[in-house]
Amino acid sequence: MRASLNGPSKMTSYEVIVYTGDKSGAGTDSKVYITLFGNHGKQTEKIHLKNSNNKDPFERNQTDIFHVQGDYIGELIKLRVEHDNTGRSSGWFLDRIVVTDLNNPTTKYIAICNKWLAKDEGDRQISRELILNKQTSEIKRNNQYKITVFTGKKTGAGTDADVFIALYGNLAETGPIKLESKKNSFEAAKKDEFTIECPNVGELNKILIAHNNKGSAPGWFLDQILIEDVIAHHLYEFPCNRWLAKDEDDKEIARFLFPKKTVTNNQYKITVFTGKKTGAGTDADVFITLYGNLAETGAIKLESKKNSFEAGKKDEFTIECPNIGEINKILIAHNNKGLAPGWFLDQILIEDVNAHHIYEFPCNRWLAKDEDDKEISRFLFPKKTIDHEKEPTAGVSYNITVYTGDKKNAGTDARVYIVMHGKNSSSSQIFLCDGKFEKNSVDKFTTDASSDLSPLTALDIGHDNSGVGPAWYLDKVVVECPSIGIKQTFPCNNWLADDEGDRHIERRLKEDLSLRKTRRPTVPWYIWVYTSDKKGAGTNGQVILVLYGNYGKSINIKLEKNSDTLQQGHCNQYKVDMNDVGIPFKLREDIFEIKARALGKLTKIKIRHDNKGLASAWYLDRIEIVDPETGLRYYFICEKWLASDEGDKMISREIYALENKTRHPSPVRQSKIALTKSKTNKDPFEKGHKDLFEIETLDIGQPKRIKYA
Fold it and tell me: What is the tens place of the pLDDT at every residue in 545-564?
């Protein structure tokens, strides 16, 4: 019987399986340590991971198994993994760790890392605390997989060792599962069949097959593995045709295998043009993140064997990653390292090889701590990404509101991220950029997910523990999906910190169902705003749009913008959601989502700006709007200045609708027009004056009467 919490400690044996990632330079020569934490506030001593099953532990794409002694601390909840930063190659990319208390071998704990522990990579941390997720043979089984293993025909191909398999899918992974039966398995030239039951992992994208090198003849030549997803009626083939042996081939006893027919990654060719200014080149490391309507890539380092990013030069890179859909923006940044880190970027071209489409991202600005606005990262938007004859396909929009608590030092400087979980799928890790996360504050974001997750079943939120004050007290998170009409509240009321509370920096939040709100779902409209290519046509003013239909008018729609929208020669896309609520809220930098009253058929728009800023004058070419329910496209032709110092000096215009491409106006019987700018007198309607006004409206036929008011 184990000792009580107040009694003397009892030792137990732990199996620790460490998976080093498959990245360049992923392995480490440093000494690695682990500390385990239990659910009653107990923890083990810091344990040195040595005596691996491999001669050289922690090599790239290697699995190391350790058996260590430690205090029995009850059910495991988290671990701390760290290294001492010694050796010629100290940086380490850790994929995951699996821990088993050998006194209870049916229960395994899995900690996912997928990050660097390095002083010169990522967030430069060499110690991380990871949550241990419990997996037990007692848990609910809801999918069945039939596994057929074909051992090769080579001499000595069979193995006496214990064989383990782990399945990886687009929804989850299983953790290591021992393949065992009552007969002798894995004999040369034989096939062995196993059936396992486990939670559904979705579409299989890889497996890990390994053995523990035990027995008199542990070496194994594996031909292939077939896996049948019984529920999905799908068969996967995983070729191997290699040894898993310490004395054969590459001496590995664990291998990742990939399905013979799998969806290939998308390929993107990236061409970076550095400007010709003096000192335009950079010595820093440059990173790019691609954002699409289906997903985002995360930060990718742009590296090659030659000196890159020299003044007046172009550099080409090719990256492979899952398809992210239509690219709507990129984030380009550097880490400010080197003797001359400042960088003047001219532009970036990105070719989506599979889609045969090229995106152009103008920049023409410094990324430097001592130039321009002192920023070393910038969001860039494509110059032309829209097929004007085809409506865009967007992801599902989610409005995220984050409430930071009202405790001392509650705010955080760290990078905060979320993962949204639905019934059948999950989002990628989404970083909430531009949030302040200050004490007792509210931060709002909107993001697009690739599929309809609402209502969410859970929400993961965490941070990367970076910055001077990373500790964070989170009150709650509210998630609204306008297209579904559901608003959910996820209470937290806890620290996300490695030095407060239970020292977790990531939490899984569950919804308070009593706070759920529903309303009528919205329908997205699409708006294209074309700024003329005339010199000085772009504006930095606040543009406001009002839509008029035969059922009424919308609220004021603010086209909130960044430095790259509504610029000379650009077309900017906006998304507007219409229902009968009348509550506005912003979507993201250049796409906005508005809740306006149902308008019916559009008749006109009113467009204006606030005339603020150094370059507020704006030459609007036209606006196009599509009603998604009818497919009707409305054209609003302007071809005039909205400026107090150009043309007729008007900063507000009413423009009548032309339907589809006929350019014939919608029928209008009357029109109300404000007489404000006289062509003959500065102050109109003065005694003895004759004022001449020039007005523009749609053809109403022969006027029958005029009403003055």
Answer: 888 877 777 778 888 666 56
